[in-house]
Amino acid sequence: MSIAKVDLHDALKKYFGFNKFKGLQEGVVKSILEGNHTFVIMPTGGGKSLCYQLPALMQEGTAIVVSPLIALMKNQVDAIRGLSNEDGIAHVLNSSLNKTEIKRVKEDITSGVTKLLYVAPESLTKEENVEFLRTVKISFMAIDEAHCISEWGHDFRPEYRNLRHIIGRIGDDIPIIGLTATATPKVQEDIIKNLGISGATTFKASFNRPNLFYEVRPKTKTVDVDIIRFIKQNEGKSGIVYCLSRKRVEELAQVLQVNGVKAVPYHAGLDAKTRSSHQDMFLMEDVDVVVATIAFGMGIDKPDVRFVIHHDIPKSIESYYQETGRAGRDGGEGHCLAYYAYKDIEKLEKFMSGKPVAEQEIGHALLQEVVAFAETSISRRKFILHYFGEEFDNETGEGGDMDDNVRNPKKKTEAKDNAKILLDIVKGTNAKYKSKDLVNVIIGKENALINSHKTNEQPFFGKGKHEEATYWMALLRQLLVAGYLRKDIETYGVIKLNPEGEDFIKNPKSFMMTEDHVFDSNDDAGIIT
Ligand code: ADP
């Protein structure tokens, strides 16, 4: 089907009242209308919902939208109904409906009134629903929060793994639309593989948030005082403070209140009424600050959040990006301040210890990236965007000076010779070590694994003795970000040589490095036990 440009804009105006498409929306809508499998990667707030809602409203039949969160589905259905005079235009199908309600939903779908049907994956799997959906016209299938399909995402849901099979049972040639705000290459690959949409037309928006300022401070005994001081300097502005535990949320909210900050706690342990009243107080600006666990934020659309503080470092860069992303949605200032102590990482590792081995390996690899992010002295924005598969140039890119490391750069030193040593050793060992063991080989520290490969007998073993392990770790990370090396994901982080690294070995050139920040790992103050 070919849809003229003017029709699309008319439809956008007619259904949503918007004059222009946002970002990549128009291309996505066209791709869906053409019946292509389509993959959409856009940061939160990018306008993903419209990408499938508009073509659903324009087409014959019902679009099925799979989403993991019942509350979000309800919001979306209300919003769509609000745009039209017809309640039946959008429905949720879930287990909370009674018989009469289910009958109504089915009638509306059969008669062609319903354009959007929201379902949770568990409801879609139900035999009676599959049987019913086989008999009606489905325009396409949109899988929202598609990263839930991947163990490498921050929110793995095993039920998502079944989706491809179920879709196949509902119909043979239903176009599939995957949407996510998680941009790591590995998660993308998993989504494409699991949804079986290898030829999908892919749209990926930039993840750069130029108005956000990123800062990491060491977490010491006086972290609470530091947070109070920061909030007082930003008096009257809205902000969120994230903590790992409910207990810590309660304590910190109290400390803030005692110190004259208008703050409320929010976590899943509070009853529903308190949670919704605290959320409303924040939205209505009766309070300035919400101290919260990660339970807070899903679907919160307060555009003028001016700061997001992480009292505890999150368990992955994705989580950090999602949570900090709640600041400055209106395009205005957004200060993202995280407190970091290595002890917190160890604590997060301990949480994982009871989990299956593969999950632990993934969790560990994700945490190592958080460590690298916290300790790095290269631009934080560059680091984050690199993590999401995007190259960023601080000189020319928007927001290039908006982080602590760029504002207060550490001195750079020439590391050409040491970069050569490091890359030579990656090659010399046939690229089989993860970062820790690689550094051990460089500084000549034996262990069972290294000895079992007889790497300790190689001439290059210990060739970098003249520097400390922390130095080599920093150099390694910077060579990764610069693209000379890469981390292999299948093997949970083995360091491999890129063609640029091979070239460097042949023709070494200047490589300016900055040493990582040194965080005192013995300082366990401020850590809640
Ligand atoms: P996402 O699902 O990617 O997080 P949403 O679909 O919730 O993003 O959209 C974010 C916001 O952008 C919403 O408030 C939505 O109304 C608005 N929006 C979406 N498309 C447009 C557009 N074309 N013009 C103006 N506002 C838009």
From TrEMBL:
<dbReference type="GO" id="GO:0006281">
    <property type="term" value="P:DNA repair"/>
</dbReference>
<dbReference type="GO" id="GO:0043590">
    <property type="term" value="C:bacterial nucleoid"/>
</dbReference>
<feature type="domain" description="Helicase ATP-binding">
    <location>
        <begin position="29"/>
        <end position="201"/>
    </location>
</feature>
<dbReference type="GO" id="GO:0003677">
    <property type="term" value="F:DNA binding"/>
</dbReference>
<dbReference type="GO" id="GO:0043138">
    <property type="term" value="F:3'-5' DNA helicase activity"/>
</dbReference>
<dbReference type="GO" id="GO:0009378">
    <property type="term" value="F:four-way junction helicase activity"/>
</dbReference>
<dbReference type="GO" id="GO:0006260">
    <property type="term" value="P:DNA replication"/>
</dbReference>
<keyword id="KW-0479">Metal-binding</keyword>
<dbReference type="GO" id="GO:0005524">
    <property type="term" value="F:ATP binding"/>
</dbReference>
<keyword id="KW-0067">ATP-binding</keyword>
<keyword id="KW-0238">DNA-binding</keyword>
<keyword id="KW-0347">Helicase</keyword>
<dbReference type="GO" id="GO:0046872">
    <property type="term" value="F:metal ion binding"/>
</dbReference>
<keyword id="KW-0547">Nucleotide-binding</keyword>
<keyword id="KW-0413">Isomerase</keyword>
<dbReference type="GO" id="GO:0006310">
    <property type="term" value="P:DNA recombination"/>
</dbReference>
<keyword id="KW-0378">Hydrolase</keyword>
<comment type="similarity">
    <text>Belongs to the helicase family. RecQ subfamily.</text>
</comment>
<dbReference type="GO" id="GO:0016787">
    <property type="term" value="F:hydrolase activity"/>
</dbReference>
<feature type="domain" description="Helicase C-terminal">
    <location>
        <begin position="226"/>
        <end position="379"/>
    </location>
</feature>
<protein>
    <recommendedName>
        <fullName>ATP-dependent DNA helicase RecQ</fullName>
        <ecNumber>5.6.2.4</ecNumber>
    </recommendedName>
</protein>
<dbReference type="GO" id="GO:0030894">
    <property type="term" value="C:replisome"/>
</dbReference>
<dbReference type="GO" id="GO:0005737">
    <property type="term" value="C:cytoplasm"/>
</dbReference>
